[in-house]
DNA sequence: GAGCACTGC
């Protein structure tokens, strides 16, 4: 039957099959059906119903992250307003996956499907599938210790073993037990002592009347260490899901390469001259190395025969301004092969399309932490087998690829299976503060998957005690400790804010702490060293780096304010600010981050009832406040002009980028202490073993 | 007068 409109003429309607939106729709349905996980939907649901804890080992491309939550939701796990939570180690993953799943479900983002990350929450009361960062779920647990809104929590990428993931695993284990005890309480089937232990540990507040359903836990990991997770969760069932990855040929060198940078260069040109089309991804250790390899490639390109394919070089590392990072994602022009020189950022954080060849020297620059001295170092070390696998996998995303490992096969066998979890190589003060706030008093007794050393725990407890966050018997102090635990900051910075409210300089300290918490503000391109230096001089304060950062922040705020007063909308004002950043050699991404932190922390501080006042021109007051709060990082000048850190007796030097580098005051407080060492397995680069301290502020 | 892998709340 043909319907007619009001004028009586026939109205025709296409079946819509050719509409771009419908084509996209069909494509999505097709793609979902072809995922390896699609064929095991029923089996997975059964396993989840049968087991309270399930380990899912899913290879790259299995579809586990996007599909499993949808299966569970359709399988009834969102009933009674319950939420399925999926944690990710990285913000960008939470956002992109949530957007994709919302599209697959044909819902608007923030309705049934949403994401929640720091500074950006798209969820609503109707959200049933919630993607989030693991750190954010930890923060949520402070407000809701039993995570009562969730029916299922899926911890994705658990093999990465970030600090947040590790703490979360221990916490979830306790929450699960407490909720199952809660559900069985009336049946009186649980020994009282056991129930009390868990209740005391997990929940700060007594549970509200309604009974809680048990919590389902799903741990998703890449193939290598499923056994470790299974053992940790009492022999939990592990399910394997096939991936969809193209084969990658692995090639090793015949001999040990004495210089991996040179070996990488030779390999780039060998691939370029002898192999078929496809881009090359080279893993290097840092900015300096990338820049020097870039220069060397440009020199050697001149010697290529005229007839050969062109070669374009694109660097990518995290501190590179975003617009320059984008170049790595642009397809190469026809007749050109792209060589991407990347740090570890390309291992997991970003996926660059078009890669067919990977060159892997087998090294990484990684942070290590000395629990005794409190000193951080960046050390170039061999990667783990898991990392080598992850790197080679980057060549097989779109078709068969090749990975050239610049070391011998016998060396590969010597690599450790997986990287040491971060929790064993970082300062634990923050972790301990959060656990204490969650009601875990016995840190040594907490069920870590891998327990940090006794020294590490003891030193961090000591630090928290000295900051006044803990009482004599190592319980969270009130109000200082609980206030510090509420702030998402390094405990020293949290303490500084509390002290600053007493010194009437909280306004300045809020800015300092936000600026110090973000990444480096100053961007210094090699070819514009002098210009960058001159620009920085405008902000320099003789009172130290903290106040220098304050003046950068205030100048940027003034620029934004002016632009808004002139009637600019937010977008335009932001553009104006970015232009200001470029002119002043400020990294706009870092500044944006600092502004976000500032507004978030300001909110917390106001809620706590602290008074936000400015010390005006009284810099002495601000410096006194720094001394009172950063005392753990104080250092005194010695005869030879170096400094001795009071807490650890380490000899440190002021970093040349500091405004106090020349002034050399008698006493300083530093905001970061780090040492630089070089170890090369292939390349003997023992260049210098000095210790550089970044200094900051003179104290009277 | 020197350099900073990468995340996250």
UniProtKB/TrEMBL annotation:
From the UniProt record, give one GO term of the biological process aspect. Answer: RNA splicing
Residue segments, region Disordered = 1-23
Signal peptide boundaries: none
Reaction(s) catalyzed by this protein?
ATP + H2O = ADP + phosphate + H(+)
Entry keyword RNA-binding: no
Tell me its EC number(s), please: 3.6.4.13
One cellular component term (GO) for this entry is: spliceosomal complex
Source species, domain of life = Eukaryota
The answer to whether the entry has keyword Protein transport is no
Read off the PROSITE patterns from this record: DEAH_ATP_HELICASE, HELICASE_ATP_BIND_1, HELICASE_CTER
Annotated Helicase ATP-binding domain residues: 45-242
Which Pfam family, an example, fits this chain?
A: WHD_HA2
In alphabetical order, the GO MF annotations are: ATP binding; double-stranded RNA binding; hydrolase activity; RNA helicase activity
All copies of the Helicase C-terminal domain together span 267-439
What's in the keyword line of the UniProt record? ATP-binding, Helicase, Hydrolase, mRNA processing, mRNA splicing, Nucleotide-binding, Spliceosome
Q: What family name appears in the similarity comment?
A: Belongs to the DEAD box helicase family. DEAH subfamily.
Q: What is this protein called?
A: RNA helicase
According to its UniProt entry, this protein's organism is: Papaver nudicaule
Q: What is the lineage of its organism?
A: Eukaryota, Viridiplantae, Streptophyta, Embryophyta, Tracheophyta
């Amino acid at each position: 039957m043909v319907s007619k409109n009001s004028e009586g003429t026939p109205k025709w309607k296409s079946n819509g099959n050719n509409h771009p939106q419908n084509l996209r729709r069909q494509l999505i349905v097709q793609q979902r059906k072809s995922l390896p996980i699609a064929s095991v939907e029923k089996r997975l649901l059964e396993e989840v119903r049968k087991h309270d804890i399930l380990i899912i080992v899913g290879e790259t491309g299995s579809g586990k992250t996007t599909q499993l939550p949808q299966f569970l939701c359709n399988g009834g796990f969102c009933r009674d307003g319950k939420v399925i939570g999926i944690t990710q180690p990285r913000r960008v993953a939470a956002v992109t996956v949530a957007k994709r799943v919302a599209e697959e479900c044909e819902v608007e983002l923030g309705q049934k499907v949403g994401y929640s990350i720091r500074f950006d929450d798209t969820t609503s009361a109707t959200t049933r599938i919630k993607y989030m960062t693991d750190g954010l779920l930890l923060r949520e647990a402070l407000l809701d210790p039993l995570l009562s809104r969730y029916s299922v929590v899926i911890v994705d990428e658990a093999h990465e073993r970030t600090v947040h993931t590790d703490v979360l695993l221990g916490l979830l284990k306790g929450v699960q037990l407490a909720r199952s005890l809660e559900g069985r309480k009336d049946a009186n089937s649980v020994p009282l002592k056991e129930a009390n232990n868990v209740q005391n540990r997990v929940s700060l507040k007594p549970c509200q009347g309604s009974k809680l359903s048990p919590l389902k836990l799903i741990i998703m990991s890449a193939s290598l260490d499923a056994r470790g997770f299974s053992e940790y969760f009492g022999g939990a069932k592990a399910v394997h899901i096939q991936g969809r990855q193209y084969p990658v040929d692995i090639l090793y060198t015949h001999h040990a390469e004495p210089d991996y940078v040179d070996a990488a260069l030779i390999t780039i040109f060998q691939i370029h001259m002898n192999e078929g089309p496809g881009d090359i991804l080279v893993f290097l250790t840092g900015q300096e190395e990338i820049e020097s390899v870039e220069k060397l490639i440009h020199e050697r390109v001149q010697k290529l025969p005229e007839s050969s394919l062109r070669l374009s070089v694109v660097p990518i590392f995290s501190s590179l301004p975003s617009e320059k990072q984008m170049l790595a994602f642009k397809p190469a022009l026809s007749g050109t092969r792209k060589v991407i020189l990347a740090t570890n950022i390309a291992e997991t954080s970003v996926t660059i399309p078009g890669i067919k060849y990977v060159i892997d020297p087998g090294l990484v620059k990684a942070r290590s932490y000395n629990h005794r001295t409190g000193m951080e170092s960046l050390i170039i070390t061999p990667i783990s087998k898991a990392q080598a696998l992850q790197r080679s996998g980057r060549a097989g995303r779109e078709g068969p690829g090749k990975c050239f490992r610049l070391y011998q096969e016998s060396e590969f066998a010597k690599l450790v299976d997986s990287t040491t979890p971060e929790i064993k190589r970082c300062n634990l003060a923050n972790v301990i503060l959060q656990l204490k706030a969650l009601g875990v008093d016995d840190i040594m007794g907490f069920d870590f998957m891998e327990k940090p050393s006794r020294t590490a725990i003891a030193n961090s407890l000591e630090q928290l005690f000295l900051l006044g966050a803990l009482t004599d018997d190592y319980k969270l102090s009130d109000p200082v400790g609980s206030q510090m635990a509420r702030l998402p900051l390094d405990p020293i910075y949290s303490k500084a804010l509390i002290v600053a409210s007493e010194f009437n300089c909280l306004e300045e300290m809020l800015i300092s702490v936000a600026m110090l918490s973000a990444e480096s503000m100053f961007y210094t391109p090699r070819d514009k060293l002098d210009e960058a230096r001159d620009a920085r001089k405008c902000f320099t304060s003789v009172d130290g780096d903290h106040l220098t950062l304050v003046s950068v922040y205030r100048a940027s705020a003034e620029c934004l304010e002016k632009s808004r007063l002139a009637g600019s909308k937010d977008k335009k004002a932001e553009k104006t600010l970015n232009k200001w950043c470029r002119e002043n050699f400020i990294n706009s991404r870092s500044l944006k981050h600092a502004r976000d932190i500032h507004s978030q922390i300001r909110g917390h501080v106001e809620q706590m009832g602290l008074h936000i006042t400015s010390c005006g021109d009284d810099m002495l007051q601000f410096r006194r406040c720094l001394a009172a709060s950063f005392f753990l990082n104080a250092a005194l000048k010695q005869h030879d002009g170096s400094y001795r850190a009071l807490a650890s007796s380490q000899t440190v030097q002021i970093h040349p980028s500091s405004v106090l580098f020349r002034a050399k005051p008698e006493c300083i407080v530093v905001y970061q202490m780090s040492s630089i060492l070089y170890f090369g397995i292939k390349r003997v680069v023992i260049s210098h073993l000095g210790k550089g301290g970044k200094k900051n502020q003179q104290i009277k």
